[in-house]
Amino acid sequence: MMGYQKPVQYCRFLFYAAAVVCLGQMLSFASAASPISEAERQKKEAEERYEAVNGEAEELEKKKGEAAVQAGQLDQELTDLLTDMDLLETDMSDMTRQIEKEEEEYQKAEEKRKRQYEILKKRIQYIYEEGDVTYLDILLKAKTIGDVINGNEYFQQLYEYDRKLISEYEKTKDDALGRKEVLEERQSELQSLKQEYGVREKTLRNMITKKRAEESDFDRRLRAAKAEAGSQAEIIRKRTEEIRLLQKEEERKREEERRAEEKRRAEEKRRAEEERGAKEQNSGPGRIKSTGGSEFGRNVADYALQFIGNPYVWGGTSLTSGADCSGFVQSVYRHFGVSIPRTSAEQASFGREIAYEEMEPGDLVCYPGHVAMYIGGGRIVHARSAKAGIRVDDNPAYRTIVSIRRPW
After folding, report:
1. Distance separating alpha carbons of residues 362 and 298, to the nearest angstrom
2. CA distances from 150 to 133, 163, 167, 267, 373 (A)
3. CA neighbours within 13 Å on the CB side: how many for 42?
4. Please, is 399 exposed, middle or buried when counting C-beta atoms within 10 Å of its C-beta (0-12, 13-18, 19+)?
5. Burial class (CB in 10 A: 0-12, 13-18, 19+), 362
6. What is the mean pLDDT of each run of 10 residues along the chain (408 residues)?
7. DSSP code, position 320
8. Is 291 left (phi over 0), alpha (psi -120 to 50) or beta?
9. CB 90 within 8 A of CB 149
10. For residues 233 and 87, is the Cβ–Cβ distance under 8 A?
11. Which residues, at least 6 apart from 131, have a Cβ–Cβ distance to it below 8 Å?
12. Residue 399 — left, alpha, or beta (φ > 0 → left; ψ -120 to 50 → alpha)?
């Protein structure tokens, strides 16, 4: 509406200015034929109108300035939103390609499992037809395939060929199930991205409608906003690539350490099997704790780690009953008396910007439509998706990073 008020108020200004000029001319004619008192009265009326015109002109300038400020703020909001949606689309495309790849790998694993299953069925049929009842009893008495392979009582009675056949089938089946789990997790995360994209799209449409109603030159501003959004998105992509190079180097070092550790464990296992003739028994890992950074940041991160395994709930803020990504970190910080915004988009501009190389436990790693908390050691904790729930992951740069913020 302000776009229509400007020309109306400007016309009023011209009208009053013209009226002042006309009154001045009238006074020059009336001074010769009218008394001084009449001239003073007309002069006073002209001065009052002049003051009124000046006052309205000042009000017009004030409103014009306010309109310019509001337009600038709306332009920045629109640019930020377009940038976020651009990055969201990139992540959704990447996630779709990952799902296609995981689907292909899962189908291959499942086909392999079916072929081995048919071989195993034929083998059991052969045992039955040949009358090897003792061997069939062993298979029927076992509750699981693991009982057949590992049970000391049955182990001595299995033929080496059948033991190898069953082991290969179990490994193939576990591989197929693992790939199916990864596929379902990718699909769940893509669904979360689509939900966030829908919210962004609705917000963008509302903002565009509002801007069209208030600005007559909306198309020009929108093109400028899109150009600025593209420029900012390109800058963020370049920065993300730099981060990924650093992450790749860290992953290389971790891979070297992992391989060395696997080699050491394999050697220990070999020696133990030679000495004892049994499998090595492993103890479960201890509770995950944060590392590095400040004491306050570690306290925040360790508190967040208490809720690993709890459910992801879209729109939720409960650390026990269910929370989404932004509700999770907001509730964790609320426990320490720190108030942060509710949505991931607001959290991406809250607090102090931190470089990737300077991340400490407690810092928020912000992505398009998502947020996680860094816990040190190249790991993050976050409410990832409805499938994954609240969990720890090893790669902070697994998606495009928009910003890293320190809320305190």
Report:
1. 6
2. 21, 10, 11, 21, 42
3. 19
4. buried
5. buried
6. 46 49 46 58 66 65 67 74 78 80 82 84 73 55 60 50 76 83 83 82 79 66 72 76 80 90 85 51 55 96 97 97 98 98 97 96 97 97 97 95 97
7. T
8. beta
9. no
10. yes
11. none
12. beta
Rg (CA), the chain: 36
Task: Enter the tokens of residue 328.
Answer: 């999770």
User: In the block, which residue shows the tokens 């998502």?
Assistant: 370
Residue with tokens 């963008």: 204
Residue with tokens 């969201």: 88
Q: Are 401 and 243 in contact (CB under 8 A)?
A: yes
- 224 contacts: CB under 8 Å, gap ≥ 6: 75
For helices 36-130 and 133-141, give the axis angle rounded to 10 degrees: 150
Question: Exposure string (b/e) for 247-261, b if CB count within 10 Å is 16 or more?
Answer: beebbeeeeeeeeee
pTM over 0.90: no
- In the three-class reduction of DSSP (H, G, I as helix; E, B as strand; rest coil), residue 33 is classed as helix
**Which tokens go with 340?**
């942060």
Report the C-alpha gap between 90 and 100 in whole angstroms: 16
